[in-house]
Design a protein that fits this description.
Layout: E1 17-26, E2 29-43, H1 50-55, E3 58-73, E4 86-98, E5 102-104, E6 110-112, E7 134-147, E8 152-163, H2 179-186, H3 188-194, E9 214-224
Antiparallel strand pairs: 1-2, 2-3, 3-4, 4-7, 5-6, 7-8, 8-9
Amino acid sequence: MGDLNPYMPFKETNLAGGLVYRFNIHSRLSFRANFIYGHLEGDDSNSSNAFRQNRNLSFHTDIYEGAVGVEFSYFPFQLGHERYKGTAYLLAEIGIFKMNPKTYADDGNEVELRSLGTEGQGSELNSKSPYKLTQLVLPIGVGAKMSLSKRVGIGFEMGLRKTFTDYIDDVGSDNYVDPVLLSAANGPTAAALSNRSLSGDRFGQRGDSSFKDWYFFAGGMLTISLGNPTICWTH
């Protein structure tokens, strides 16, 4: 959810995958570490909004995320336990993610956007430096898990990611930079990919600087116990 897709988080859905490690502190609280890979994209041409259709921007990026935190179960849970075999849970983590927003130029070639400075970053046209490709993220989510045996369980999880950048989609400024000045400062490719509006309006709105970008993951999970089964956590 960002400047190219502000309201529909699962509109441009792609496959993702990852690995999760849990250390069960007790039957309701687990320490957790995970690594997730995914792919994000947005394209104004797929929007039903007239403004975004005219703006005509697009981006795509791979996401590599690593995070640690805690998982709190609503009810006691233990793999293989006859009574405590299912629960919903809450997830809270802190981590970092790596992105690299790209787009396709008019000639069909893939272009990395950050190095271009499409909003004048890194020049006298913008007070901001080029944005960092590695950023802080706060994953929070909800899920449910169920025991199938003493060593195997399944689950489902939905998690949103609060970030502190407005540039996952390379769009952060409210307005376009003067294309002549941008071409002189950062090159003609930066100017060409900064404003791709169908109307060619130099003074149109480019983005919305009032909120940061978010992204989401959702999916199923297979859990396999790596240690010796606990005899009993609860009485």
